[in-house]
Amino acid sequence: MGHPPLEFSDCYEDSPDFRERLKCYELELERTSKFLKDVIKDGNSVINAIKGYSVAVQKFSQTLSVFQFDFIGDSLTDDEMNIAESFQEFAGLLQEVEDDRMMLVGYQQHLLDPHTIRGGNKRKPNWNWLPGVNSVSGLVLL
Questions:
Q1: Which residues on neighbouring strands pair with residue 140, listed in sequence order?
Q2: Which one-letter DSSP state was computed for residue 126?
Q3: Confidence (pLDDT) at 142
Q4: Where is the BAR domain (predicted)?
Q5: Residue 24 counted as domain residue
């Protein structure tokens, strides 16, 4: 829904119509402010849930990576060696996924920082902490 424009000359007259239009703008600003606060709050909740999930996956990955069969006799069977090797390989893949997920979470946290949203930080953002990003251009390097 669009709002009628506020004319500078109307503020001198201070008419009831001008005050009504001004009130519409104030209500819209309050609604937008509440929406942005909810986005930040919900986004932070999602990030915290992702962090908890990531910790659980990393623990699972660590458990898989240290798994060893106790063998009876001289050596492990081929199946036992394949299973142990598969667990370690799967653990490595899980760890890579979680490392990338945490990189994205760091980026999301930066985007949901209220100072970033409000424009409180007028400096150019420093992306050096993000692997693969050229700090000069902000382009992703592959």
A1: 133
A2: -
A3: 41
A4: 6-110
A5: yes
Q: Give the global pTM.
A: 0.62
Residues of the domain holding 108: 9-116
Number of domains present in the structure of the chain:
1
133 beta partners: 140
Residues in contact with 102: Cβ distance below 8 Å, sequence separation at least 6, in sequence order: 51, 54
More confident residue, 125 or 94: 94
Per-residue pLDDT at 121 exceeds 70: no
Note whether residue 123 is domain-resident. no
Question: What CA–CA distance (Å, rounded) separates 92 from 62?
Answer: 9
Cα 127-103-86 angle, rounded to 5 deg:
145
Kindly report the number of other CB atoms within 10 A of residue 20's CB atom. Answer: 10
Q: Tell me the Cα Rg of the chain.
A: 27
* Mean pLDDT over the full length of the chain: 81
Sequence-distant (≥ 6) Cβ neighbours of residue 114 within 8 angstroms:
40, 120
Query: From CA 118, how far away is CA 31, in angstroms rounded?
Result: 16
